[in-house]
Amino acid sequence: MSHPASVSFEFFPPNSPEGRDKLRETRRQLAPLAPEYFSVTYGAGGATRDKTRAVVDEIAAEGRAVAPHLSCIGATREGVGELLEQWRAAGIRRLVALRGDLPSGMVDAGEFRYACDLVAFVRERTGDWFRIEVAAYPEVHPQAVSAEADLQAFARKVSAGADAAITQYFYNADAYFRFVDAARARGVSAPIVPGVMPITNYTQLVRFSDACGAEIPRWIRLRLAGFGDDVASLRAFGHDVVSAMCARLLAGGAPALHFYTLNQAGPSAAIWRAVAS
User: Is 133 a catalytic residue?
Assistant: First the structure.
């Protein structure tokens, strides 16, 4: 039975011609799944911004909806304003507005302190042209002083003009449902889309999760560690665990799923097919 929820996929800008070719093939494989949009991550450095722009332009030229990430840390109002005009001139209608992380060695946080300031600026400059997605943290942002403070920060982003939110990835569906309930209790009605990270590499997943504050439940961590070099079994287990979680999320009312693909089509496509058919 088909589920009415939609799907979207996130990419990062490749650093090499081979990486760009691989990403084109990834998009070709994901296109038959009729994603609502593709998103492209963004860095604070000029070179990274240029790579983001190149990927976004290419996706748009393919006739697909695309949402560039826009990070405000270290940015100026003038610079962000110019970028918004570039995206608007290119016909881009979605953005993922984020605070971002201060690059190593950079001491000036720029003219925007928080993501809510960026969202308000986008609305001030461009009205309703862009559909704005923001980040949400069901397991609490790693830099938040408390869960309540984090929830307040999320509510401010929505009040500033965000249309919807994409969560940090997680492996505990209860964390998502509790976060949604808490947001609704605060009067936040914007859709909150779960972010999904397929499990394909134990070491990589642990590194990512430790850096961003996403919790890997102990039973999952131990099972993954136990597979050792048996990559096929690890990926089969990861597929089953994440697919079951996604099915529960959709059955519980999640409006869509957003996959952090790491520029790979197979794992995300397999999970989506498993839960959407």
Answer: no
